[in-house]
Amino acid sequence: MSDPVNYPGRMSHEPENLPAPLPAGELRASDADRERVAAVLHEAAGEGRIGLDELTERLDAVYAARTYAELEPLTRDLPSAGLPVAHETVVQPTDPARFGGEPTSSGGFALLGGFERKGRWVAPGRFTAFAMLGGGDIDLRQARFAERKVVIRAFAILGGVQVRVPEDAEVHVGGVGILGGFDSGAVGDGEPGGPVVVVKGLALLGGVSVERKAPDDVIKQRKLERKEERRRAKLERKQLKAP
């Protein structure tokens, strides 16, 4: 269980209303968006507009980009500049394939041991986690949500609770830390239509960590794609240098 990085103490109460839609540039880019930008860069390298070293650098930035605002500068100086561009704010409806259903668990308890909720499970609107001299792992990345907003009440006493949330989730963290704390590094807006995760509770000589992360299979696929792009760039560099 990772240690908390800060001790915010009491933080804001959970939101009463859902937020306004994000500006277009802050919307999350998809894998297809990144592939379109990568194709523009490969074409530019083939035309001699950018060198192979710069191609490699830009491709690394492409596959690390998470929003349209991070992708746009990578092709701004090229004829196909601005790919992809989100021209207007999009409000996505609630996904019926992701929200709704009967919760499969409403809490977890760990005393001198541990518990985990992971994989494809149905998270409730309210989940209570208690860990004393033990640890709990709440993984929401592949979960279905009974409601769009889930409130996790985490109590860590001489122990720890780890919460992993989807990349598109809006995250709020609040709680009381006494010689312990809540990690608020994942706090921030998500994508329109994504889940809202509120984490609060008590950390006494313990910690509650919240991590925004893609599912393990997606992370593995992204690594393979970056490796393949580097291999292709290296091969193109060798071909251009060949007599």
From TrEMBL:
Residue span of region Disordered: 1-30
Domain of life assignment: Bacteria
UniProt-listed PANTHER family: DUF1707 DOMAIN-CONTAINING PROTEIN (PTHR40763:SF4), MEMBRANE PROTEIN-RELATED (PTHR40763)
Domain DUF1707: 27-79
Name the UniProt record assigns to this protein: DUF1707 domain-containing protein
Source species of the chain: Virgisporangium ochraceum
One Pfam match: DUF1707
